[in-house]
């Protein structure tokens, strides 16, 4: 047996093994809910690398299903994570990533939080 025939045999065997899930799985509401509840929510999730928020006031937001988290570097250089919503009305506080040099303001109530 030469190397060409071995490669052909391996290629043929690989064609019989599926390489992805069926297309319907990627947009199925019940499977999405199960994946969130049983796999993603109970496990640790990486929001960003520490280098993504190098200076005070830098932040990154992260959405996991209906939940939103903000991770920011405070004035003391500590990295902190919070739910990205106002506790009273659920208004989203920050979007995407960036720097909030002075305060985070609730768009609904107008209260301020200093990072």
Poorly predicted regions? none
Mean of the pLDDT scores?
84
Q: What best-fitting shape do the alpha-carbon axes yield?
A: elongated
Which structural class should the secondary elements be placed in? alpha+beta
Number of strands: 6
Biggest sheet layout = 4 strands, antiparallel
Helix content: 10-25%
Share of β-strand residues: 15-25%
Could you state the order of secondary-structure elements as H and E?
Answer: HHEEEEEE
Instruction: For the largest sheet, list the strands in their spatial order.
Output: 3-2-1-4
| Total count of helical runs of at least 4 residues | 2
Distance between the termini: 68 Å
- State Rg: 23 Å
* Quaternary structure state of the chains depicted: single chain
Describe the structure.
With 115 residues, the chain is of the alpha+beta class. It contains 2 helices and 6 strands, in the order H-H-E-E-E-E-E-E. The longest helix has 13 residues.
Task: Write a compact overview of the structure shown.
The chain is built from two helices and six strands; from the N terminus they run ααββββββ. It is of the alpha+beta class.
Topology:
Elements: H1 3-15, H2 29-40, E1 58-64, E2 67-73, E3 79-83, E4 97-99, E5 104-105, E6 112-113
Antiparallel strand pairs: 1-2, 1-4, 2-3, 5-6
Descriptive key words:
23% strand, four-stranded antiparallel sheet, single chain, 115 residues, 22% helix, alpha+beta, two-stranded antiparallel ribbon
């Amino acid at each position: 047996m030469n190397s060409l025939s071995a490669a052909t045999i391996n290629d043929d065997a690989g064609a019989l093994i599926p390489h992805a899930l069926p297309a319907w799985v990627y947009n199925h509401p019940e499977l999405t809910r199960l994946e969130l509840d049983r796999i993603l929510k109970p496990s640790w999730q990486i929001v960003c690398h520490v280098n993504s928020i190098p200076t005070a006031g830098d932040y990154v937001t992260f959405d996991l299903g209906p939940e939103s988290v903000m991770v920011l570097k405070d004035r003391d250089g500590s990295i902190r994570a919070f739910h990205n919503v106002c506790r009273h009305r659920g208004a989203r506080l920050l979007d995407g990533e960036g720097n909030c040099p002075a305060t985070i303001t609730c768009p609904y109530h107008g209260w301020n939080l200093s990072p």
